[in-house]
Amino acid sequence: MENLLTPQEMWERDRGDEIKIIDYPLDSNSQVIELGGFTGVWSKKIIDKFDPNLIIVEPVPEFIYELKRNFKGNQKVNIEGVAISTSNKKINLHVKGCATSETIEVSKRKISVDSYDINYFISKYNLTKIDLIQINIECEEYPLLLNWVETGFLKNVKYLQIQFHTFCENYEENYEKIFEGLKGN
Question: Model pTM?
Fold first, then answer.
């Protein structure tokens, strides 16, 4: 009977949004990075289960406010009010609700933010290992991951959790390149 279920149905049956998204062998010494923190829903789950060291990268001011309010007093949570990118630069993001994108015009509202490559965070926090990176950045995952595959950065990461978006230009081709690149890491 299971082979009649779609992947989405299996995910729902297995309570993926509650259980699978935090099913990692982490502990209180683990280093976790969340890219696209929104208001901290995923972060709260991972903190409640493991109490890891956590860096949350979120560029939208109203979400940063919520993150700071939600994790006030937690010394193990660092909130970075910037964006992640393949290089250090100023970018313009389209913002509509929880959808924020540099390349997809999700709305006419735009904000200008600083963005940094992953090496900025590694240097700032003196990271020697990263146990888990969670990525939900509305189509920006493709150029970021392609860059990480190309530069070999992923050798420094134990686990990746990625929300791949399927409304992006060339997403199938880029997904295949990433998938092939991840095999070598």
Answer: 0.88
